[in-house]
């Protein structure tokens, strides 16, 4: 029977102890690295969530009614945790547009003018739930329909004002807004001018379905005018919508809205707000404005992503009108896109709005007439450089009905050339 060599075994164990200790230390170091990477991964996930929420907010502000193509899978973000700071919660965007305009009408002097527009806005994510937003714009603060400034008046300095200042609450598919807020509705300029930002509270809901479709539901309580003594002016509006999935090269979308105005006070309005709606001798509106608005769109991408064809149709009826001039309708047909360098897009539009079809205070500001017009429009867009856009626009319009000696039924021409830089 061989003798057990205990001294050798003990010596071997003692010799191995430092190796075991080193392995334990190495394991602890690896665990610490894993924990650090997991913490970094969590920070990146939070940043990605904020980016996704901001993207959804920007998509809503663009009011693109077509469900976009399925987003490509994102590459993993490789960001040092040192970069994760308060600055990642702040998003700033804006644009500057320079525009020339010519107006031509039978029996009137040809007119040439120039306009400038500047906008800069920011959002700040206080938390995953709360976002603050604000935007500074040029233009007359008493005109909600336009942020353009006429270059005139002996080189006076430009006016600047806040056209957005709001709190946003993010609750998954539902977002709530309060203050001077972004427009919540899918729209065309037949009913809503693109510069109008309501004041009040709104809810924007969008739920993506399996297969790429989306359901939308938006609501707005709009404080139009508050009177300390008399009745207030408000609007309650709601809209539901559906965006289809891709069906081969086709997509379609539909939106239906109802806007119920209660116009008790007009003391805060001026001629630029009333515009072409019918009014009584005391300045009040002849009609109520209870608008039903339906927008239908279809997109064909069979010629590739660069040359989609998009058709949008809008029909509005004022159920509260006290006149037979209570309906408006129109369509836009666009060929091409204008989002990447060297893109071209050509758009033809036809619109007709009767006198009290819509509330003129918030409808289009592209023409001398806010309602009671028939319009043909042709627009050519070109992207010469990233984040730039050149647009040439021709408006060919006339009064739908001659209701004043100031307007005849002759056609009026308005031509615009604009250069836009965004950031």
**End-to-end distance, in Å?**
89 Å
Strand tally: 17
In this structure, how is the largest beta sheet organized?
A: 16 strands, antiparallel, barrel
Q: Helix tally? A: 2
Provide the structure class.
mainly beta
Overall tally of domains: 2
Low-confidence stretches: 1-7, 9-23, 62-84
What best-fitting shape do the alpha-carbon axes yield? Answer: globular
If strands are numbered along the chain, what order do they take across the biggest sheet? 1-2-3-5-6-7-8-9-10-11-12-13-14-15-16-17
CATH topology of the largest domain, anyone? Porin
Strand content: 35-45%
CATH architecture of the largest domain: Beta Barrel
Organism: Povalibacter uvarum
Protein name: Porin
Pfam families: Porin_5
InterPro entries: Porin_5 (IPR032638)
Lay out the secondary structure.
Elements: H1 6-62, E1 90-105, E2 111-125, E3 130-138, E4 149-150, E5 160-171, E6 174-180, E7 199-208, E8 214-225, E9 233-243, E10 250-263, H2 271-274, E11 290-300, E12 309-318, E13 327-336, E14 344-353, E15 373-382, E16 388-399, E17 412-422
What this model shows, in words?
With 423 residues, the chain is mainly beta. It has two domains: 7-62; 87-422, Porin. Helix content is 14%, strand content 43%. It has helices spanning 6-62, 271-274, and strands spanning 90-105, 111-125, 130-138, 149-150, 160-171, 174-180, 199-208, 214-225, 233-243, 250-263, 290-300, 309-318, 327-336, 344-353, 373-382, 388-399, 412-422. Strands 1-2-3-5-6-7-8-9-10-11-12-13-14-15-16-17 form a 16-stranded antiparallel beta barrel. The termini are far apart.
């Amino acid at each position: 029977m061989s003798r057990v060599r205990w001294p050798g075994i003990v010596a071997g164990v003692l010799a191995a102890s430092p190796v075991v200790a080193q392995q334990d230390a190495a394991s602890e170091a690896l665990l610490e690295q894993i924990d650090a990477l997991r913490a970094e991964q969590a920070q990146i996930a939070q940043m990605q969530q904020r980016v996704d929420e901001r993207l959804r907010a920007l998509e809503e502000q663009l009011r693109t009614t077509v469900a976009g193509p399925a987003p490509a899978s994102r590459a993993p973000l490789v960001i040092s945790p040192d970069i994760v700071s308060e600055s990642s919660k702040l998003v700033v965007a804006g644009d500057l547009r320079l525009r020339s305009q010519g107006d031509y009408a039978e029996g009137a002097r040809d007119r040439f003018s120039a306009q400038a527009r500047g906008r800069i806005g920011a959002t700040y994510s206080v938390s995953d739930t709360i976002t603050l937003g604000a935007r500074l714009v040029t233009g007359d603060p008493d005109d909600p329909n336009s942020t353009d400034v006429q270059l005139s008046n002996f080189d006076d300095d430009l006016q600047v004002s806040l056209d957005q200042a709001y709190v946003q609450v993010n609750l998954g598919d539902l977002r709530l807004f309060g203050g001077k807020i972004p427009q919540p509705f899918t729209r065309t300029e037949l009913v809503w001018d693109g510069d109008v930002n309501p004041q009040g509270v709104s809810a924007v809901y969008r739920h993506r379905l399996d297969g790429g479709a989306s359901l939308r539901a938006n609501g707005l309580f709009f404080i139009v005018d508050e009177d300390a003594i008399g009745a207030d002016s408000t609007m309650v509006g709601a809209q539901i919508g559906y965006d289809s999935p891709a069906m081969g090269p086709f997509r379609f979308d539909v939106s239906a809205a109802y806007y119920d105005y209660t116009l008790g006070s007009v003391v805060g309005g001026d001629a630029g707000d009333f515009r072409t709606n019918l009014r009584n001798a005391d300045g009040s509106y002849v009609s109520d404005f209870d608008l039903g608005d339906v927008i239908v769109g279809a997109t064909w991408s069979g010629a590739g992503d660069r040359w989609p064809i998009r058709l949008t149709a809008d029909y509005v009826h004022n159920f509260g009108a006290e006149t037979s001039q209570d309906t408006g309708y129109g369509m836009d047909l666009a060929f091409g896109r204008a989002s990447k360098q060297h893109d071209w897009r050509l758009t033809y539009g036809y619109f007709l709005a009767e006198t009290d079809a819509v509330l003129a205070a918030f409808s289009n500001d592209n023409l001398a007439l806010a309602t009671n017009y028939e319009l043909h429009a042709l627009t050519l867009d070109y992207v010469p450089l990233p984040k730039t856009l050149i647009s040439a626009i021709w408006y060919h319009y006339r009064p739908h009905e001659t209701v004043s000696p100031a307007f005849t039924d002759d056609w009026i021409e308005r031509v615009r050339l604009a250069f836009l830089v965004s950031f």
